[in-house]
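Chapter summary example.
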Amino acid sequence: MVGFMLGSLVSGFFAWRSTFHLVGLFGLLWSATWTLLVSSDPSEHKLIGERELDHIQSGIMKLNEGRKQSMGSARKAAAPWLLIFTNPVVVAFMFAKFACKLSTDAQAMQIPMYLKNVFNVSKELVGCHNLARRLREKMHQSILTSIPI
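The structure predicted for these 149 residues follows.
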């Protein structure tokens, strides 16, 4: 997500190839950070204290006990996929999502060329416009996904 936003800005000021270098650099930094700070088990983590470790492990034990009790009599039912994907609400949602994505991608490709060719806007300003557009999209997404239904 950060790579896409910064990529728009970087491609306005530097060659388009630098966008891929920037995203790759962020990926390497994230991988190194993840490797150094994350462990698969809380007892192996370097930054967790004894008190916090006891709290985590007691919570895991309570969670496992609750699962064993609830799974004793319950049987897992198969999901009705055909009914789900033929539901009119789901079909309408998938169509709306496809149409929104198609129009957003078309705008992302066509508006920069339009601004450059018709209004002679510099590529730096076009990159800033793309960054602002992506930030606005992400803000709208975060607002819409935080609204309870």
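To summarize the output: The CA atoms of residues 49 and 55 lie 10 Å apart.
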